[in-house]
């Protein structure tokens, strides 16, 4: 659990680097969501949690996408606060 929190925190912290946080959040969130659907099977982690139904696949991608956009919102808010 700690490793998962650390790795996701590091991944989504990339959203706040440089300009265009919204675009970066969108792309990183979408990439993480697609990876969450496509990669578990080939990595031997089992496909059941994210590939149960088409709705499950869509929700998996959507949650990661929302995470990327939330990270962009936080990055923008903290950047405005610093100025």
Compact summary:
The protein is an all-alpha fold and 83 residues long. The chain is 76% helix and 0% strand.
What does this protein structure show overall?
With 83 residues, the chain is mainly α. It is 76% helix and 0% strand. Helix 2 packs antiparallel against helix 4 (54-82). The longest helix is centred in the last third of the chain and has 29 residues, at 54-82. It starts with a helix and ends with a helix.
Main attributes?
4 helices; 76% helix; mainly alpha; 83 residues
Write the layout of secondary structure elements.
Blueprint lengths: L1 H12 L7 H18 L9 H4 L2 H29 L1
Helix pairs in contact: 2-4
Instruction: Name the overall outline.
Output: elongated
What is the H-and-E element order?
HHHH
**How big is the Rg?**
14 Å
Query: Which stretches of 5+ consecutive residues score pLDDT under 50?
Result: none
Quaternary structure state of the chains depicted:
single chain
Kindly report the average pLDDT value.
86
**Number of DSSP helices?**
4
Briefly note the structural class of the backbone.
Answer: mainly alpha
Sheet of most strands: none
Query: How much of the polypeptide forms β-strand, as a percent range?
Result: under 5%
Would you report the number of β strands? 0
Distance between the termini: 35 Å
